[in-house]
Amino acid sequence: MNFTKNICFFLFLILLAITLQFTSQATALGDVITITKAANVTKPGCQTECGNVTIPFPFGIGPGCFLSQWFEITCNASSNPPRPQIGRLEVLEFTDYTFRVRNKVASQCYDQLGNITEENPVSTNVGLTTPFSFSQKNHFTLIGCDDFALFLSRFQVNFTGGCTALCLKPEEVVNGSCSGVGCCQTSIPKALKYYSTSVGSMVNNHIKVWSFDPCTYAFLGEQERFTFNGVSDFMDPNFRNRTMASVPLLVDWVVGNLSCSEARSAGVLACQANSECVESDTGVPGYRCICNNGYHGQPYLEPGCQG
Ligand SMILES: *[C@@H]1O[C@H](CO)[C@@H](O)[C@H](O)[C@H]1NC(C)=O
Ligand SMILES: *[C@@H]1O[C@H](CO)[C@@H](O)[C@H](O)[C@H]1NC(C)=O
Ligand SMILES: *[C@@H]1O[C@H](CO)[C@@H](O)[C@H](O)[C@H]1NC(C)=O
Ligand SMILES: *[C@@H]1O[C@H](CO)[C@@H](O)[C@H](O)[C@H]1NC(C)=O
Ligand SMILES: *[C@@H]1O[C@H](CO)[C@@H](O)[C@H](O)[C@H]1NC(C)=O
Ligand SMILES: *[C@@H]1O[C@H](CO)[C@@H](O)[C@H](O)[C@H]1NC(C)=O
Ligand SMILES: *[C@@H]1O[C@H](CO)[C@@H](O)[C@H](O)[C@H]1NC(C)=O
Ligand SMILES: *[C@@H]1O[C@H](CO)[C@@H](O)[C@H](O)[C@H]1NC(C)=O
Asked: Ligand 7 center to residue 247 CA distance, Å?
């Protein structure tokens, strides 16, 4: 009797685990990359790559190659390899629901007397009328021992967030743990398209901590890609460059402005065969096209998703 009961409970646990896994797959619309692997990635006759980045429709390079003005990519040939840009942002990679852009890190450094020796403020804008917004998989991160950082977004939504990071001795700082001692992280609200940082000293311009922490850094970036290395990050003169190179800013995209039913009745629905229209969940109006179960490829281009 007990044995059967245990088996039942065990099966129940397995079912629960499977259900949970499916649920988390369904909601983790983050890193699906099938659109750039479709047989037809771009419109016929359009440039498929810029440097080593594949550009999937609705994005495109050149007239007739993108869905609407928001999706126009310029391929900047003044660097080697050439770099794709959307507005002034450098795009590193496109996925089915997001794109990653080269990040910026704000910094402020002091000398032993507490004078500021280096100051790099940051602001980033994905365009207030675009169908793009910062993914909530980005967190706002502050590194330092005598610092606060404000995260400001003034246009669309009036949002101010922030962090404080304090410590007195290097021994207090825990390698790998960003939890307020030497490193602080906060999440951001949905639908943000603009932010700027403002950093400053909490106590006395790093004078007491200068020997192991001369600078403060603040940035918005993909949380999963960042690991705090404790005091060795404070002392790394390359921290800013390294973080800009390794922690991208993740941007959500949808096909702009109309809901699925509005687009359908206006006759402008972009979803092709074997795909389904899904309403935007990014907080920005619009929709996405997603291949039906068992199909994959390019939902935005004829002949649609393939079995
Ligand atoms: C790619 O696009 C061309 C032109 O629209 C079309 O003829 C062809 O069937 C497409 N190929 C695939 C594999 O979808
Ligand atoms: C493009 O090249 C850079 C540097 O060579 C590399 O780091 C990056 O992973 C490449 N991106 C893709 C999508 O292959
Ligand atoms: C192209 O890239 C160069 C070097 O990275 C940069 O100076 C220039 O502003 C870029 N061009 C445009 C149109 O953004
Ligand atoms: C540096 O700080 C000292 C002490 O606060 C001050 O007297 C001096 O004017 C500062 N120097 C500069 C270049 O700001
Ligand atoms: C945000 O606040 C500023 C300053 O108070 C104001 O000028 C602006 O209109 C506000 N923006 C929104 C979208 O509420
Ligand atoms: C921090 O932890 C990582 C991973 O555990 C390790 O590789 C690294 O050497 C550590 N750094 C310091 C400064 O202790
Ligand atoms: C960081 O990158 C910039 C631009 O590529 C370069 O000029 C600077 O020397 C780099 N800093 C360090 C510490 O490597
Ligand atoms: C959405 O509609 C507004 C108002 O008509 C317009 O200003 C904006 O450019 C549109 N955005 C997109 C992505 O189509």
From this structure: 16
